[in-house]
Backbone:
């Protein structure tokens, strides 16, 4: 097995604004070992979220490649990339992206419906419900199963989003500003939960954050500046 679980090689990305191309990443190289928690920091516009989206196959690079266990994964057929996004990668976003009409439990169960299709999902619904309930209990929301997002606090919505990201048993968790909408104490609680899950499940994690205190609790800190890796720094004990 390759030592590096997730790897970016020479990633280049630009976006179009009218007639103009706006460069974002300029040949980023990045290596993440299995079970490692890496924080990515940098100023607004430095390319942090773009890098995360490319690694998770939510977008495609203009040049360079993304490797998982030494095998390139960004250039395969769309169906294969869909499976990787649904089964191998878990995603957590700053704005939660919970469906407001569904309960916390139903939001966590939703990825299985997407993966299995409606009929197969119905036949396995009891087991899926049991697994989703166990995950919500693990993130401290066993008493909020039937509450809709509008009835949850920001921290509770983010914990629901974390449970949803974990429901498919991913190998890699990608978190984009997971504490960005939370107060300091709640954000620290979410970070501690992610850290515990990283250790319990040996999950490979990459977390984009603007919060230096949060970043320094990772195993390693990567700084991006103007679309390039400017600095590698070990996290503080």
Residues:
């Amino acid at each position: 097995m390759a030592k590096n679980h997730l790897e970016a090689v020479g990633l280049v990305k630009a976006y179009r604004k009218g007639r103009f191309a706006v460069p974002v990443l300029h040949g980023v190289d990045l290596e993440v070992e299995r079970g490692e928690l890496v924080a990515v920091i940098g100023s607004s516009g430095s390319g942090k979220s773009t890098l995360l989206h490319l690694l998770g196959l939510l977008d495609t690079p203009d040049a360079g490649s993304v490797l998982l266990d030494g095998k390139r994964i960004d250039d395969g057929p769309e169906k294969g990339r869909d499976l990787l996004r649904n089964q191998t990668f878990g995603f957590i976003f700053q704005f939660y992206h919970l469906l407001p009409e569904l309960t916390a439990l139903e939001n966590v169960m939703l990825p299985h419906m997407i993966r299995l299709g409606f009929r197969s999902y119905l036949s396995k619904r009891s087991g899926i419900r049991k697994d989703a309930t166990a995950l919500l209990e693990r993130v401290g929301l066993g008493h909020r199963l039937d509450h809709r997002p509008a009835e949850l606090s920001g921290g509770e919505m983010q914990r629901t989003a974390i449970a949803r990201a974990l429901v498919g048993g991913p190998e890699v968790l990608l978190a984009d500003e997971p504490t960005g909408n939370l107060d300091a104490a709640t954000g620290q609680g979410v970070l501690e939960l992610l850290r515990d899950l990283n250790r319990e499940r040996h999950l490979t994690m990459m977390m984009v954050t603007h919060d230096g205190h949060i970043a320094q609790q990772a195993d390693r800190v990567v700084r991006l500046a103007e679309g390039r890796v400017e600095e590698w720094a070990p996290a503080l004990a």
